[in-house]
């Protein structure tokens, strides 16, 4: 099946920036939505941002205006640029994929088929 591998997590100060990346390998379908969920300590996993194969994007309210998602289809890679980081952004960030021809981006995690192992993002105050 499809494998997703995240990179770029780490430690940042409040107000700083990080960029996390996710590369898909294996039997990657052409109709592949890719995005990011995160799970803060002691909280449920939540939607952050996603992008369709043709560039339609959707953001959680918490990410809008600070985070930017993009993808490079030639590299099968999606990026999440995170600016103006806040301590509440601290979480394990998971890359997720969904095979669908729909143009509507779903925010419910059970609708995504493939997941990375997660990468820790820690923002200190």
Account of the 3D structure:
The protein has strands spanning 3-7, 10-13, 18-25, 32-39, 46-51, 57-59, 67-72, 77-82, 91-99, 114-115, 119-124. It has 125 residues and is mainly β. The strands form 2 sheets. Strands 2, 4, 5, 6, 9, 10 and 11 form a 7-stranded mixed β-sheet that branches. Strands 1-3-8-7 form a 4-stranded antiparallel β-sheet, with no helix packed on it.
Offer a few descriptive terms.
50% strand; four-stranded antiparallel beta sheet; 125 residues; mainly beta; 11 strands
User: How far apart are the first and last residues' alpha carbons, in Å?
Assistant: 40 Å
- Tell me, briefly, the overall form: globular
Q: SSE order, as H and E?
A: EEEEEEEEEEE
The radius of gyration is 13 Å
Number of strands: 11
Q: Would you tell me the overall average pLDDT?
A: 95
Percent helix, as a range, is under 10%
User: What class, by secondary structure content?
Assistant: mainly beta
Count the helices. How many?
0
Strand content: over 45%
* Sheet of most strands: 7 strands, mixed
- Contiguous runs where pLDDT drops below 50 for at least 5 residues: none
């Amino acid at each position: 099946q499809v494998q997703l591998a995240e990179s770029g997590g780490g430690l940042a100060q409040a107000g700083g920036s990080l960029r996390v990346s996710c590369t898909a390998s294996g039997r990657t379908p052409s109709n592949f939505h890719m995005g990011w969920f995160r799970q803060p300590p002691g909280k449920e996993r939540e939607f952050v941002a996603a992008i369709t194969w043709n560039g339609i994007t959707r953001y959680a309210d918490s990410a809008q205006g600070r985070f930017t998602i993009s993808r490079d289809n030639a590299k099968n890679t999606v990026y999440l640029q995170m600016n103006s980081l806040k301590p509440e952004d601290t979480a394990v960030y998971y890359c997720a994929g969904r095979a669908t021809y729909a143009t509507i981006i779903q925010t419910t995690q059970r609708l995504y088929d493939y997941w990375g192992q997660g990468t820790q993002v820690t923002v200190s105050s």
